[in-house]
Amino acid sequence: MKRSRIVFIGTGAFLLVGSLATAAQSGAETAERRTPAAHAYQNRYAGQRLARVVVKTDEQRRALESSGATVLNCHAGIGRMRVAATDAQIEFLRGRGLDVVVNQPDLQALIDAQRTPRAAGGDPFDDFFLDYHPYDGGTGSITWYLNELAVRYPTLASTFTIGNTPAGRPIRGVRVTSSVVTDKPAVVYFGAEHAREWIGTTIPAYFAHHLLSQYAIDPEIQDLVDNVEFFLIPVFNVEGYEYTWTDERLWRKNRRDNGDGTFGVDINRNWGEGWGGEGSSGVTSSLTYRGTGPFSEIETQRLRDFFIAHPNLRAQLDIHSFTQLILWPYASTPLLPPDQTYYDQVGKAMKSLIAGVHGLTYTAGPIYTTIYPAAGGSVDWTYVQRGVLSYSYECRDTGEFGFELPADQIIPNNEELLPAVLHLSDSDWVRAPIRMEYPDGVPNRMMVGDPTEIDVRIVNQTGTLEPGTAAVHYRFDGGLYSIAPLTPVAGDLYLATIPATSCGSSPEFYFTAETTDLELYSNPRGGAAEPYTAMVLLGMNVVVAEPMSSDPGWTTEGQWAWGIPTGAGTQNHDPTVGATGSQVYGYNLAGNYPNNLPARYLTSTPFDCTARFGVTLRYQRWLGVESNSNFDQATIEVSSNGVNWTPVWSASDTGDAVSDSAWTLHELDISSVADNQPTVYLRWGMGPTDGGLTYPGWNIDDVEILSAYCGNLEGDVNHDGTVDIFDILCVLDGFAGVFVTCAPEDVDLVPCPDGDAAVDIFDILAVLDAFSGDDVCP
Ligand SMILES: [Zn+2]
Question: Is 154:212 a contact under the CB 8 Å cutoff?
């Protein structure tokens, strides 16, 4: 192996000493880099713990300020604060009534571990993502890796710089694209706008490597690299990042000398859109110091000018850590952006892709409401001023390690973000000349006998819609598609109308439009080959009703219990009665759930959903959970075997704490798991919870399972769309007390409309009438 040696010297500068050629020398280098106390850096956090402090009053905030503990949050105030603190400081805080939970007993050990190569002795290119790396300084550094990519993939990759920092250091990236297509859209993804957020530096580099190494293997990657120009910048805040390696691991800002003894501007508060507003500070020592004016900082000027110089830039990703979030504009106001529908659609898709890899939950939403106001951030400026689809990620984790995310999580974190970054790169906003949005969603159910209307918004991007070309294509039972033009409503809004169809049909549809340049746009992109699908129904039947008035005998863990809630607990407390009747299932009927609770489940008995479709869960909810930022979790999952569970709802998806103050009807489509399954299990999860605030938890009443029916054919008791011998057999079975393929309420046909709670000779006569075409319920 060949590795350059980095020697840290006292002032925070570093020297590149040269190359080492032997394993023995390499070992010496490793030993040197691991030597404790070689530099003041190593001992800055000696004897300190990483802790969470809950600050509830101004008095407690003042106590925190006077404790000497280092607050790591960018806004010190009321709420949960992350701190680095000694035992004496923790004792001081606890003595003043603050709730302190120690997450990590030895902060310095974590910092040292992050700097200790795991890959010593291996190939520095292949092992690059086993470790964090300094910005430059030879083999194994980030800039070395970018150069290696360009050397190894010369036809697809090249290095570039967006300019130099105030100290004259180039801000480097790698550009990935092929020369197959010349005129193409571009994206820019960058990490470490905040210096201490090391995991963010790995995301652009890992993504670059994936694009390059898969280009010849994966046709979808090839298509992307042929048609999109990628600018990938691992370290935007170069000087701040270097400082985290040489002097202060937890440095956040750039290294501007503010002239008053303080250093650093928060460059993610220095952008020109909404500069000076909420969530930024005019105090030079603040972690969110916004600088003396919009774009006062060289770094933000460089990236701004890069956007201006590249009008083909269509998307950006500003990568931070931590708390596992997918964020979009605005950062400076609670108002939703005009393109909220689109941001939400892509954001939720990315969230779902991430969850599909290692099962981790990321919360998705606009910055202002999902984390906090952050005026002067990059996303607002690039979106408002450049029309760029602007997202920000907060990477792993949710607070256990925070900025000190261990290096063994670099690859797992990248593995789960990769499909999300690909999805963003492949989005219509980036790639299509125009795009379509559906403000009310795309329906997956159509009502019998009624045409289905769908609102469509068509937005010009790099192209212009040719009037009269927008259309919906539909078919009901295979065969050829019919085409119906969209009706203009107002501005960029159109109405698609799909005609009425009958029970048992399988509607498929997609949308197309043309630009004035004769480019064809299709949504979904695959058009007829990958259409939207829907089911046809007349209404919903209640299949199962569990009123909770007697003990259903479900399986409980922890403090799950059936009984009468006591009205105890904090925030909006528990109820004192059920939604109907007195009893409910609740997590801790006598008050709040506890801190640091692992997930505890309430699991139902199995329900028979054979021959049911469009299965829906409906229940009454009174829930209190601190689910914002994934602090505490409350979930609902469904299973068809009691072993494999599919999440269908998560409180953290709401982007906020849930704090019900009344019984609330909650309905969830569980058809993808439950349709036509003989054993359907439901479970409600409480936890995991963290060490901060607690809420009253779950209260559940009146659980119902509904299924869609298509009963326009009276006598179609098994809901297959036709009245035939199987319906007659079903009624005869029911008459004999056997309910295998049909439920009692299905075969109880008369008297109309809902039967008489008995399957008798009149029901048999009714199904025979229906079979011969007579009207059973005229
Ligand atoms: Zn950040």
Answer: no
Q: How far is the CA of 252 from the centre of ligand 1 (A)?
A: 8
Compute the distance from residue 694 Cα to the ligand 1 centre, in Å.
Answer: 27
pLDDT tens sequence across 96-108:
999 898 999 999 9
507: exposed, middle or buried (Cβ count in 10 Å: 0-12, 13-18, 19+): buried
- Centre of ligand 1 to C-alpha 90, Å, is 26
Nearest by Cα to 652 from 677, 678, 633, 672: 633
Out of 3.10.25.10, 2.60.120.200, 2.40.50.180, 1.10.3720.10, select the CATH number for domain 540-709.
Answer: 2.60.120.200
Per-residue pLDDT reduced to its tens digit, 640-664: 999 999 989 999 877 778 999 999 9
- Asked whether the predicted pLDDT for residue 601 surpasses 60, the reply is yes
Kindly state the helix (H) or strand (E) to which residue 243 belongs, with its residue range: helix 238-246
From-to residues of CATH 3.40.630.10 in the chain: 148-431
- C-alpha 393 to ligand 1 mean position (Å): 9
The verdict on whether 394 is a catalytic residue reads yes
Residue 219 has pLDDT above 80, yes or no: yes
Coil vs helix vs strand at 366: strand
Give the integer Cα–Cα distance in Å for 484 and 479. Answer: 16
For residue 195, report the distance from its CA to the centre of ligand 1, in Å.
8
Measure 392 CA to ligand 1 centroid, in angstroms.
9
* Spatial separation of the C-alpha atoms in residues 182 and 186, rounded to whole Å: 11
Of 45, 65, 47, nearest to 55 by C-alpha is 65
Residue 758 and residue 775: Cα distance in Å, rounded? 21
- In the chain, list all ranges with CATH 3.30.70.250: 48-105
Confidence of residue 583 (pLDDT cuts 50, 70, 90): very high
Lowest mean pLDDT: which of 204-218, 423-437, 491-505?
491-505
State mean pLDDT over 705-723: 74
What does the DSSP 8-state code read for residue 187?
A: E
Q: Six-digit token pair at 351?
A: 């969230």
Pair 588, 559: CB distance under 8 Å? yes
Q: Taking 80 as the threshold, does the pLDDT of residue 353 lie above it?
A: yes
Give the helix/strand (H/E) hosting 152: helix 142-152
Q: 48-105 adopts what CATH topology? A: Alpha-Beta Plaits (3.30.70)
Q: Where in the chain is the domain with CATH 2.60.40.10?
A: 435-535
pLDDT of residue 306: 98
CATH superfamily of 435-535: Immunoglobulins (2.60.40.10)
| C-alpha span between 362 and 396 (Å, rounded) | 9
Type and span of the H or E element at 99? strand 99-104
Ligand 1 center to 194 CA (angstroms): 5
The rounded mean pLDDT for the chain is: 90
- Cβ neighbors of 732 (< 8 A, separation 6 or more) are 764
Q: Where in the chain is the domain with CATH 2.60.120.200?
A: 540-709
Number of other residues whose CB lies within 10 A of the CB of residue 282 = 11
The SS3 assignment for 239 reads helix
Candidates 394, 437, 514, 714; catalytic one: 394
* CA dist., res. 337 & res. 459, Å (int): 15
Instruction: List pLDDT tens digits, range 113-157.
Output: 998 888 778 899 999 999 999 999 899 999 999 999 999 999 999
Higher pLDDT, 19 or 532: 532
**CATH class of this structure's domain 148-431:** alpha beta
Q: Please spell the DSSP secondary structure of 500-535, one letter per residue.
A: ---TT---EEEEEEEBTT--EEEESTTGGGS-EE-E
The amino acid occupying position 302 is R
Consecutive H or E run containing 671: helix 671-674
Task: Give the pLDDT confidence of 173-201 residue by residue, as tens digits.
Answer: 999 999 999 899 999 999 999 999 999 99
